[in-house]
Amino acid sequence: MDLLNDALKNIKAVNGEWHDIAQKHLDNLTKPQGSLGRLEEFARRLVAITESKKPILDKKVIFTFAGDHGVAEEGVSAFPKEVTRQMVFNFLNGGAGINVLSRHAGAEVIVVDIGVDFDFGNVSGL
Predict the structure, then answer these.
(1) Neighbours of 43 (CB within 10 A)
(2) Phi then psi for 5, rounded to 5 degrees?
(3) Domain-by-domain residue ranges, the chain?
(4) How far is CA 32 from the centre of its chain?
(5) Could you tell me which CATH class the domain 2-50 is placed in?
(6) What is the model's pTM?
(7) How many CB atoms lie within 10 A of CB 85?
(8) What is the pLDDT of residues 114-126, one digit of tens each?
């Protein structure tokens, strides 16, 4: 949790001028305005957050939060709650789908237990 708390402390307000700079660039590309949908929104935010016309993302992290919510106990889930624990171990061992995607993207997977109904003790990486 220290990593997350440290990251949250470093978040500052976004300068709206950078949104405008990004939008102007997007509107001048050879494409219909707004045709990239959510990708354009992401680009505007990234430019505004980094305050750079060409942001570089050199550290990629995928936070994967795991927790039980009681649905399995109601009998409406396709899987028993033990699957949550098994998936956490799978995330930590690099065997889940998110791990495959993260390796492809060159990103680190950080697994956070936010209420799994299992005592992991001092499991490394959690």
Answers:
(1) 16
(2) -60, -40
(3) 2-50, 60-113
(4) 29
(5) mainly alpha
(6) 0.64
(7) 17
(8) 999 999 999 988 9
